[in-house]
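Appendix B. Extra example for self-study. Work through it before the problem class; the solution is given directly after the inputs so you can check yourself.
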Amino acid sequence: MADHPTENDKSTGIRLTPEQQKRRRARNLALGLTIGFFALLFYVITWAKLGAGMFDRPL
Amino acid sequence: MSLVSDQKGFDPALVSLAGPGDYFELLKPRVMSLVIFTALAGLLIAPVKINPVLGFTALLAIAIGAGASGALNMWYDADIDAVMSRTKTRPIPSGRVQPGEALAFGLFLSVFSVMLLGIATNWLAAGLLAFTIFFYAVVYSMWLKRSTPQNIVIGGAAGAFPPVVAYAAATGSIGLSSVVLFAIIFMWTPPHFWALALVKSQDYAAAGVPMMPNVKGPDRTRLEILIYTILLVPLGVSPWVLGFTSPVYGVVSAVCGLAMLALAIRVWLVRTGAVADRAAKQLFGFSILYLFILFAVVVVENVLVRWGF
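Solution. Structure tokens for the complete assembly:
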């Protein structure tokens, strides 16, 4: 039994138009950049709020 | 049994064609820019210095909160937007974004903006931002907008909150100076929107939105525009009277206030024909400039003070 899709299986899947693929790529890129920006922002906020006191706490 | 469907019944036409720009449009970027500007004035008029990173984050969170309430408003008002010339090309009525997508986007950003502001600054500011989003999306969009010609008077509070939220982010409290900025925007909203509604009253009537001109008539609207403008002029000068700004602000706000009053008197006097429409459009245009100039002076002079001038 084949684990990989055959040519016949492929024909039953969702086929996005080139325009849909382009828009999806653009959405993914925008989302990736946004998440990256906020990850960096939260890192900087942590420094701004705790500053040098970041390491000054009981373990 | 598979948890994933075999996709045979799936219509590829339902795959979204929305681009990042369509989602950005859901945030009402022009309203958002005004919110950022008024919030910046609230942040700078606060008598404390806020860390620049936290100040930037506070403005960002307030802007995202404003955008979130814009997206929720567009989700709820898609039926109205579809019949009004000014709004029918928005992402939902034009079919670029599905209503459910806009709702999810607005709800996610609402929660995210409130959490971001709370974590970066304090929970009073976050609570005020949550209340602002609730006020715009639920009290104004869902309740007032379709039920009373006082919709934009009461709903205007949502647009007036950003300086109070920003001030609270900087200080952890609500100060008189931020309340004065709130009052200026609150009093400015009716003449600003009703000047536009005088020209676009047929659009609002077609959409079934009870704006002042198509419920109480254009004459009553003109009178109320004048009354609100008469109240706005001294309120515009009050930050100087109360000692929150310099005499430069006092002079600029008085001159701009008198100019706005002159335009409101003209709208009240000239009631028919193309000249009347032109007067209303001029008042609408100048009202934007009026608010921009007042808040720009607050921003500039506070920046100069902080830089030691």
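Self-check: Confidence is low (pLDDT under 50) at residues 1-6 of chain B. If your reasoning did not lead you there, revisit section 3.
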